[in-house]
Task: structure prediction
Amino acid sequence: MEAVGMILIVSSRFLELLGIIMIIFFAIKKYKARYIYYTTFIIFVSISISAAAIFLKEYFIPLSIASTVISSLLLLGLIIYVIKHREETLDIQPQEGERCPVCTAFVKDTTEGLSTVTVDDVTLFFDSPLHLVRFLEDPLFYIKQRRIPVSKLEFENLFIKAKDTKRFREPSRLKFIYEGEELEAFENPPKGKEVYTFEEIIKKTKVNQDAG
Ligand SMILES: [Zn+2]
Result:
């Protein structure tokens, strides 16, 4: 009985610690603030139930078990959801006055074809998928030219806003078509156009570069 109580107390404290680590992780990795609030709420409920269980002695074990199981499931579900849907759970928004590193055009949240990549924790925004591709061809050139404070070429969170759904998606989930000189990204591309994957686009530009 006492051993069970101890295990329950330890596991509740462990869950609260896990929640605090999640909050720090969400903040550092720039996830939307709502995921910090959800985690805080789950910890708050867990602590409240633990506190109530101390006063309701005869229900201590079932209350603590319920609290531990529910908080673990909620925290685990939240971690899986947030990491699996990074393009929606990350707070990806250009700052006021943000510019495309390739052409220096101003970019806004509403820019059509807005594309982004994070290099060594610096998040860059591009006014078109094509300029993101140009950057990926020769990142060092633009990093030097625009004096971007990056010390290592570590890429993450590569997303392009789909023209049809206006949602950020990983390039591997998008289809690309050429509209004249422009490159457009779609979740469901219009019929009757030649469609490329992101890999094919990267290969194509490499071939062009080699030929030129
Ligand atoms: Zn540009």
